[in-house]
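Before a computer can learn anything about folding, someone has to put a protein's shape into writing. The three-dimensional part falls to structure tokens, numbers that each stand for a local backbone shape. The protein below has been through that process, and both of its lines are reproduced in full.
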Amino acid sequence: MNVKIKNISSHEIPKYETPASAGMDLRANLTAPITIEPLERVIVKTGLYIELPLGYEAQVRPRSGLAAKKGITVLNAPGTIDADYRGEIGVILVNLSKEDFTIVHGERIAQLVVAKHERVEWVETDELTDTIRGAGGFGSTGTK
């Protein structure tokens, strides 16, 4: 599938790093480093604009290494970029560590996964089909 991308940054467009990669790294497009203090959140611009076909979304997800090693994650993970959005891709990062973290221009800050999605039409009803799980949620199917 071909997707249009506009790149105003100085780094190359995102690419899959391995043949089995689901996501592509997004890089920070900065004029100066940004320091995120503990529990602080910032929106980091990427310099990228995309035009997705109808029926697709782009999901902005955390980078596992950045989260595990530095406590930096995407706040609204996954963030959704809709097919009709034409603005610059920004990444909401939060610092969940106890130390300041500095982001520099070109740093890999998140990953982007393009996914197909469905649209539903709601059918209102007064009753739903019974299941074994029923209304159990939030850990109700876990082992004891």
User: Anything to note?
Assistant: The two ends are 45 Å apart (CA to CA). The mean pLDDT is 95. The first strand starts at residue 4 and ends at 7.
